[in-house]
Predict the structure.
Amino acid sequence: MSGVPEQEQSHEPVMLAEVLDWLRPSQGGLFIDCTVGLGGHTEGILKASPRTRVIGFDRDLDSLEVARSRVKEFGERFTGIHANFKELGPVLNSLGVTQTAGILADLGISSYQLAGEDRGFSFQAEAPLDMRMDRSQGPTASDLINRLSEVELADLIFKYGEERGARRIARAIFRERHRHRVTTTTQLAQIVVRALNVPGRWRIHPATRTFQALRIAVNQELEGLGKFVSTGASHLEPSGRLAIISFHSLEDGIIKRAFRLASGQCQCKPARSGGRPLDMTQSLDLGESPGQTSVSQSGEAVCERCGARKQVKILTRRPIQPGEDEIKRNPRARSARLRVCERSPV
């Protein structure tokens, strides 16, 4: 792979064996890799059967070029698309694709991006505070750091980083930027360390949650995830499967709720305390309905308030986690969670 760092040539995709087991590409068909990254999952899917084809999305053009090089031996069986996976519906419609055998989304950031000297995703080395996955669009992390008010910064760091010291960090950033514009990764990391007053060695770097929060905000990672699940489910053929790998609780919570909605489980708050979300496939005659329900043209139960609609069956009651051996080989896989659902047969 010309131009690819040596460590990335042996890139190991997260939970590859589990993904192949659940998506069943050995049966052939068209698959969508919504976050193709360096192409590891796509390569595995293409190798599973000579009858498989893959359309791969990625908003990071550099990563997409690496993936194209990685799977060039498969020729026209792979099509690379430079686009955000949340554009799944419009792109597939433009390609005339209505049904697929399987859809995969790996929501993690790749080691290739983390190692990029000019990307600014990591605090391990000096780099411009960028963090954009698609460098052709949107404000950088530095733009947000230097533009938002102290309150807005604190809210962002707390909401997306779940950082208890968000107010102290925001206050320290606000003070620092009045003296010098905050533009580099190490500059921000040092501000966070001083703000939290945690000298010495750490198991997890004090700036980890702040960097996560900024990355999520810059790339709008959580926006549209629920809609993506619904769109993906609608583009599955009968018994086709949608698999999503998430890496933190915010993502996993959204995916979990979206799967429930797509399986027909009403997520409206129950009218009576202690109640549970209703299964839309069961009788709704419970005295106090949580939402206005109706029946779609396809005969599916629909909650007009929360949008529950039975499109799929959830296959993973609890998220699948990587095994100990994989975590030892690839520590970044330790927080991965895989959820899978299947399109209801006609």
